[in-house]
Amino acid sequence: MMISLAPMEGVIDSSMRQMLSALGGYNRCVTEFIRVTNSVVPSKVFHRLCPELIDGGYTRSGTPVYIQLLGSDSDRVARSAAVGVKAGAPGVDLNFGCPTKIVNRHNGGSALLKQPSLVGEIVAAVREKIDPKIPVCAKIRLGFDHADSLAEIVERIADAGANELCIHARTRADGYKPPAYWHHIGKLAHPTSTKLIVNGEIWTVENAKEALLQSRCKSLMLARGALAQPDLAQQIQNALSDHPANIAAMSWQEVLVLVERFYRESDSQNPKYAGNRTKQWLGYLRQRYPEATGLFQDIKRVRDRKEISSIICQHQRNFDSTPLRPIAA
Fold it and tell me: Does residue 143 contact residue 149 with C-beta atoms inside 8 Å?
């Protein structure tokens, strides 16, 4: 059973990848998308957005981190992929799913789903440009306005040589509104050469089981659910194992340790934006941990870095000294 941690612009950065992969359950991480515009992406950009390249493209707990590229020029995307692989990336992921208007206006992300032939061309160019041993993956939605072209898109990506294809089970028009339509993936003729991965609206172990059942996939990708429950991947892996153990979900006290660490490592350096990513994360955590609402309310209007840190630490002190489970560095 393979579980990937999705790229989420603005919150799943290297610090978050390190923390979540250390909890266990993940077989793969993917960087926030790296935009390919009018020139080939230089090596320094890959190192900035994927500092794990220093360690061979793996988190400290040994989880591989694939670089994700977003662009519509097949040649520049392919040459950028080659630069990223030379820098040490263990895999390349291509973004054909981003639904944001500014990206779509520039013919990027899910806008490309209206041009299945171009999607296939980009995948083929990347596959040809890099070492055959390096996996090439793609991430799509069911379509732009509808799912009518889904089968063609999947076929073109598979024929182009992609090793894996993750499908977010909603169209661009659906945005992130529930439900996710996992059954559309299940209707496809699953290609033998390309592994299909289901993504979208997986918040719980039961969601994961149902998504796998309806999609007929054997792998899944977690996004917002991973932020709402940091140990969700571990819980899913355990539940689907042959001999599941009785593993309690993380307590709010344990999650607070991660929140403080994330703020300190990823979100406190820039005075102008201090706390923004932590506040965004708390917005997801509130869905699983009611206590996150209080912390969010206490820091939502605070801009001073030291004051935010002090408030988080005060919330930690409000809990007793119940032993915490070990968390890897």
Answer: yes
Which residue's entry shows tokens 């980009």? 122
Q: 133-182: per-residue pLDDT in tens?
A: 999 999 999 999 999 999 999 999 999 999 999 999 999 999 999 999 99
Of residues 122, 140, 118, 20, the one with CA closest to residue 81: 122
Q: Residue 85: which of 104, 69, 63, 109 has the closest Cα? A: 69
Contact 41, 3 (CB under 8 A): no
Which run of H or E residues covers position 154? helix 150-159
Residue 214 pLDDT more than 80?
yes
Domains in the chain with CATH codes: 2-239 (3.20.20.70), 252-317 (1.20.225.30)
Contact 263, 308 (CB under 8 A): yes
Distances from the Cα of 105 to the Cα of 32, 108, 126, 312, angstroms: 19, 7, 23, 39
**pTM to 2 decimal places:** 0.94
- Which one, of 251, 277, 280, 250, lies nearest residue 264 by Cα? 277
The residues that are catalytic are: 98
β-bridge partners, 168: 141, 199
DSSP 50: -
Q: Do residues 50 and 89 touch, judged by C-beta distance below 8 A?
A: yes
**DSSP letter at 109?**
G
